[in-house]
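Quick start: what a row looks like.
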Amino acid sequence: MFQEYSRVVYEEKNITAYTQRANYTYSAPVTEPNPLYPEGTQLGMGKPAYFFSVSPTADISFVYSLEAAESADISVEANTVILASCKGGYGEEQKIFWQKGFPLGDSKTAQLKSGEVLTSNFTLDVPQIQSKAKEIQDQLNYSSDPTIEIVTSINYEGKINGKEITGTESFAIPVNISSTYYQMPEEFGFVKNTYNNIWVQKPPSLSTVKLPLLLFLLSVVLLGAMIPVRKMSRVDPEYIERLEKEEKNSSFKEFISEGKLPENRKSLLQVEISSLQDLIDAAADMNERVIHDAGTGTYFTIHSGALYIFFDAPLGENQINN
């Protein structure tokens, strides 16, 4: 009855393994004579419109970083293209009729650690992009206005939190081009999280605490009533402790196998469990088996990159850390 009411329950939770951040900034230099701005003026972000007759080009900067929960050492390559496309159809049924990418600047590479940034700078010639998109439309004899986007693809490879990771992410911003001007968003940043799943202990409800506490108090009262008054002969305390451990763990034998802690355990997320009963319950929820390492006095199980461990002996935690 006590085990039924005191059984620990675990639940699966998402924790952030690493976060990728990216953002674009830009300015439009005034390069043509006009009645509004002196030549050489830099028009900042957020203008309602940038006229071809005033600022036909835009200087753009792309910044990328990766922040890991523990550590990161990755090779990063950034490639930016202007992506022109045209869709047709109705509502959610719209499909891409045609699509064409034009490289924008050279690819950029860097070796990054957690929190370090890669910066890629390039210039967008808006009338030139408009001309290339119109040329495709004329050849296809298709007059619908195309969609223009700046797309930067990030390819990354290396160690993140001690594990080899390879991935690709794309970051796009729209460019709205009309016959005489173009528009770009005032702010455009990105945050993309990658998660790991781990099992964590759920806090006990009030109903699961009441009965175990009542049984514990009752056992204390009964133990006090049954203490013998006859003096017993002295027995070695270590021998008594060993017998008590064997008796305490005898009911768990069918759930435990003998083994050794893995040598590469430092790459695993370590979760310390407060008792052997809790560890066995957690292993059962995760459909895993508990392993006993007699050399370190530890019981453990491994699931989804996490090491769930119970230190049964006083020296266990020191030995595992050394």
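That is the whole record. The chain is about 20% helix and 45% strand. The longest strand covers residues 10-29.
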